[in-house]
Amino acid sequence: MLAAERRRAIARAVASRPSVRTEELAAEFGVSGETIRRDLLALDAAGELSRVYGGATPADSVRRRLSEGTFADREHTNVEAKRRIAAAAAGQLEDGLTVSIDVGTTMLELARALPAQWRGRVLTNSLLVAAEVADRPDVELVVSGGAIRAGDLACSGARAAALFSDYYADIAFLASGGIDAKVGLSDYYPAEVDVRKVMLTHSARSVVLADSTKIGVIAPRRVCGLDEIGQLVTDTVLPAAVAAALEPSRVLVAA
Questions:
Q1: How far apart are alpha carbons 103 and 132 in whole angstroms?
Q2: Which of 222, 206, 216 is nearest to 240 (CA)?
Q3: What are the HTH deoR-type domain coordinates in residue numbering (predicted)?
């Protein structure tokens, strides 16, 4: 394949994914990593993609979304990545901690990934998370009340916020509708965002779990800036602007 043909193919490949690593492209096109880096540099200069540390993202990497889709659809999207993210996050737990667990499909995977012998307290506004944890004999489960949204079975409103106001968690595990360098963390449901803000401020440390489909996305309701979160656990190379807003020590890429 000629260099020009390869670069056109690389541009198409990058445009179809949230992000791609240099080594993935090298394997896909059967060339060296150095060759791919030169190709990405040329394509970035031509405005056909955005070169980031370790790979590339589409040129228009900021995507605005008004809806996250149904729970049934999201439950079957990027499942393996969500499981890797959940396992990496759960691997940081120590016995005796009080943790808040947010709502959503990745939070459900986190509940499933809690170490079998872990002893601690779980606060949650997700009935699905609660159902996963309820039979754990060494876990004290505290579930918020509030209005319930169908699908995710997420609780929100004053009663849900009150639960997290009454505790100070060691770690708040937070979901995300979008991660953007300027906007920060954003999501879709105003009442749930209000609860998430309480979880954030009533915890010693916050950990946001976000797979590649959330990176570079702006949802309608802002939660907080990236400077306000303790750690981002993801499965992908971050766009340069997002990476610049988060020190390397605050990013964990799940293997």
A1: 13
A2: 216
A3: 3-58
Question: CATH number, domain at 40?
Answer: 1.10.10.10
pLDDT digits (tens, 9 = 90+) for 193-231: 999 999 999 999 999 999 988 988 899 999 999 999 999
In a domain, 81, yes or no: yes
As given in the structure block, the two tokens for residue 81 are 């990545």
Q: Write down which residue in 35, 61, 87 finishes a domain.
A: 61
- From residue 64, alpha-carbon distances to 16, 128, 195, 222 in Å are 16, 28, 22, 12
Upper half-sphere CA count for residue 164 (Cβ side, 13 Å): 32
Cβ(173)–Cβ(204) below 8 Å: no
Domain of 48, in residue numbers: 3-61
Residues 205 and 172 sit within 8 Å (Cβ to Cβ): yes
Which of 13, 34, 61 is the endpoint of a domain?
A: 61
Residue type, 30: G
pLDDT tens for 58-84 read 876 556 677 888 898 899 888 999 999
Q: Return the H-helix or E-strand segment holding 160.
A: helix 158-165
- Are residues 56 and 76 located together in one domain of the fold? no
DSSP state string for 228-239? G-SEEEESSPPP
Q: Over pLDDT 70: what percentage of the chain?
A: 98
On whether both 140 and 168 belong to a single domain, the answer is yes
